[in-house]
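Supplementary Text 2. Reproducibility record for the structural model of the 215-residue chain.

All settings were left at their defaults, and a single model was retained for analysis rather than an ensemble. We include the record here because the model underlies the residue-level annotations in Supplementary Table 4.
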Amino acid sequence: MLEIINKEEDVAEINLEESYLRKLPTYKILFERNTNRISSSICPRCDKEEENWEHMWTCSDNEQEIREIVEEAVEIEIKKKKSEKKTDELQIIQDILCPFVDILYDNSNILVKKTREWELLRGIFNNRFDLITKKIEERLIIRQLWETIYDHIKNKIWIKRCNRVNEIEKEKGITKLDKRKKPMDAISNTNKLIGRIILEGSIDKNWYTTMKLTT
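Retained model, structure tokens:
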């Protein structure tokens, strides 16, 4: 599903299926949701800055920068066309590559102080790419290249980030089940009575299952 955005000189399509990256559960989001055992919004990888959406892509713990990954993805697509002996498609990539990269690295009119690489990260396909050519088969190759870059960045940064955060949380004894619980669910047995009063309002409804003290 695509949504059209008009702003200043740009017309862009947002792939709503791809733009889920904009809603990824960063530590900022988890902290704001009061997620159990997440006591801070600070990035668990670098331990320096708040892990918001932007920081996730620029964190010093990332092995590669966005532009480096973009260039790597282009090389992957070129090698793929060569190995599949798709000479016509390879020629199209070579023909459109310079204007494609110029558009991608140019400043965005939608995102303040960002290049169009950041539009791509949000799942935004800028229609300026379609102005490179009028030929349908060439436009299809342009979209394939865009998708290859998108997937490569996601795998190189977001997936690796998730794996690293899982390792860190495992070292801290934080499990996925812990994070699914509400903070109130983590109340110790000695505080169950207080928890029930707060959650359910009346002690008489919980009397028979309430822990009794003999001293």
